[in-house]
Amino acid sequence: MNIHEYQAKGILREYGAPVPNGFPIFTADDTENAANALGGPVWVVKSQIHAGGRGKGKFKEASAGEMGGVRLARSVDDVKKYVNEMLGATLVTKQTGPAGKQVNRLYVEEGSEIAKEFYLSALVDRASGHIAFVVSTEGGMDIEEVAHATPEKIVTLTVDPATGVMPHHGRAVAKALGLKGDLAKQAEKLVGSLYAAFVGSDMEMLEINPLIVTKDDKLRCLDAKISFDSNALYRHPQLAELRDLSEEDDKEIEASKYDLAYIALDGTIGCMVNGAGLAMATLDIIKLYGEEPANFLDVGGGATEEKVTAAFKIITADPNVKGILVNIFGGIMKCDVIANGVIAAVKAVGLQVPLVVRLEGTNVEEGKRIINESGLDVLPADDLDDAAQKIVAAVKKGA
Ligand code: GDP
Ligand code: MN
Q1: What is the pLDDT of residue 12?
Q2: Which of 135, 246, 311, 329 has an alpha carbon within 20 to 30 A of 300's alpha carbon?
Q3: Which CATH superfamily is domain 21-110 in?
Q4: What are phi and psi for residue 174, nearest 5 degrees?
């Protein structure tokens, strides 16, 4: 789960990390009080969307002005002007795709005078099984670009979970960033706070880009991006409240209500599969035969008829779907249960596109019989290869 920058900074502040003061803005009326409370003389007005590259982004509407999604203001009037321009407008950045994202929230922050910009992130490093800090002197830039062009400028260090974060980790970060004296002390303290925040709220990724040194020698987190491990959210009910559904795909929200592992994709063939591995294989084979999948969907091992119906509804509600492939291996799940679920779903939502069903495993004969006798226009398939070729052919014929 991702959250907004202002929410991320709120969490870092609780753990004692240095972040600038600021106020979220939900309606333009909030602006004057926020700007006055911060006092100036410089403010930053920042678009809150779940995507990076806002500073260099462009708004679609001419009324939003020529500047990007992060703007420096030198008067309360300018703060108000930028809020009015940006609120409700659509920001296109490198990460949003061409459609952009509507800016429904802003963040007004006290401006900082930047002397240096660094990069610092923490993530779960699967290779070492440890939490790793990744730091670079090349801050404020696209870190992928830095990794590509000058990999020697990126330093990674891991923290053994048995000891937790130690002073030497902080010293190593300070050294990598070329910080000495009091700034090195600030870096050590920051690393401790960030590690505590990371572990304390079960983060998956924490990225500060840029981490800055101000002109008066203070270390500050100027930007903050956090994503949490969704599997641990049950331990943090207060974090679940930070979820912003307007940032998420409607179909993915609906799927999460039924505990379905669903990810929307750009293609034309809707897929209903059980097991993540089988789902991946199904996407691959669709591509092999020349079409693109419309989604990844793992209905899970113990899917009920209700779950299958919900999954089917989500797939058919997608206007891009030109054909559906159901590919089920009945292990824990029985093929007859799936067959009944598919039929119930088709009866409930109708079927406007070709449907191929491939069943294998427990009670497969019974499952096939149920489908064949249902009178529904289902194309049966014998194996995965056959199923993929049939749905691709049917979609190509319809196109
Ligand atoms: P991003 O473009 O989505 O990564 O948004 P950031 O929060 O990183 O802001 C983009 C850029 O705006 C930063 O890299 C800074 O260069 C600049 N910026 C943000 N806040 C301030 C500030 O308080 N003072 C100054 N001078 N620049 C800022
Ligand atoms: Mn940034």
Answers
A1: 98
A2: 246
A3: ATP-grasp fold, A domain (3.30.1490.20)
A4: -60, -45
